Amino acid sequence: MADGAKLLLCLLLLSSSPCCSSSELDVQCLKALYRSVIDPNGILKSSWKFVNNGITGYTCKFIGVECWHPDENRVLSLRLGNLGLQGPFPQGLQNCTSLSGLDLSSNNFSGPIPADITKQIPYLTSLDLSYNSFSGPIPANISNMTYLNTFNLQHNQFSSEIPRQFDSLDRLSSFNVADNLLSGPIPSSLQRFPASSFDGNQGLCGAPLDNCPTRRRRRHRLHRINEESSIGAAVGFVVGFVVAFYFPHWFVFSKRLHPYIFQI
Ligand SMILES: *[C@@H]1O[C@H](CO)[C@@H](O)[C@H](O)[C@H]1NC(C)=O
Ligand SMILES: *[C@@H]1O[C@H](CO)[C@@H](O)[C@H](O)[C@H]1NC(C)=O
Ligand SMILES: *[C@@H]1O[C@H](CO)[C@@H](O)[C@H](O)[C@H]1NC(C)=O
Ligand SMILES: *[C@@H]1O[C@H](CO)[C@@H](O)[C@H](O)[C@H]1NC(C)=O
């Protein structure tokens, strides 16, 4: 980076950092998250000890908390994977105003992603909710998280369609919705990801998976199958009836008649 740019960056960081108002919001964020999450193994409880000593930066040593700078509380990312956590999607994140990464993977979180998630944490570059029990639709306005480049929802219970608006997430370099309950067509700009990003959803279709049936063709085919099977049933019924009526001995004496029938 050019020296001028470096200096500018330093000035920006300095001007936005030390005097705690944004830092204090980040502490509020962590407190709200701590209150909203169920922590059966007591992992957060043993590490997230909030104090009122006016020292900034102590929250940066909490398990799972990464700060932009160790001497201030501004949270860069929350890495809370595999801690046995439960409960709904964590609350209070809008006060982590500089959050760029959120990893809640391999816990037991459940319930929907809040519809206003983009308003809460607009600058995310990485969102990993994989291996939980989240459910409901994937909020369409995640498409407004324009910086998102890693997005993993693998192995949850998300249902409904992948929002078509996700076509506008043009920075995505990693995307995975495998093992959910999704259906409908895969948005075209996501078709560059491999089938393994979409496997394990019964109703998803289109590249890189199988073609989507067009509605007309499907209805036509159903119609035809119906027609064929009802004609088949009618013919079978009539033939069976006629045969049984006129040739009852075929049924009664069928064993004895076998040789004759074969001769005929
Ligand atoms: C954010 O922090 C402010 C100031 O402490 C607080 O009043 C507000 O309730 C917090 N918002 C959330 C969503 O926790
Ligand atoms: C996950 O949470 C559900 C309730 O939300 C509970 O029934 C289940 O036992 C939990 N599973 C684990 C592995 O903690
Ligand atoms: C996101 O979309 C939901 C409906 O899909 C809407 O209720 C909500 O207000 C939207 N939020 C933002 C921030 O656009
Ligand atoms: C969200 O993204 C859509 C396109 O996907 C755009 O039309 C809309 O204006 C965006 N909303 C905001 C609040 O940025």
From TrEMBL:
Entry keyword set: ATP-binding, Brassinosteroid signaling pathway, Glycoprotein, Leucine-rich repeat, Membrane, Nucleotide-binding, Repeat, Signal, Transmembrane, Transmembrane helix
Cellular localization per UniProt: Membrane
Superkingdom assignment: Eukaryota
GO cellular component: membrane
Molecular function GO terms recorded: ATP binding
Pfam families, A to Z: LRR_1
Cleavable signal peptide: 1-22
Entry keyword annotation includes Nucleotide-binding: yes
Transmembrane spans: 231-253
Membrane topology listed for this record: Single-pass membrane protein
Main location: membrane
GO biological process per UniProt: brassinosteroid mediated signaling pathway
Keyword hit for Transmembrane helix: yes
PANTHER family the UniProt entry points to: OS01G0891700 PROTEIN (PTHR48065:SF25), OS10G0469600 PROTEIN (PTHR48065)
Family to which the UniProt record says this protein belongs: Belongs to the RLP family.
Protein name: Leucine-rich repeat-containing N-terminal plant-type domain-containing protein
Species of provenance: Oryza punctata (Red rice)
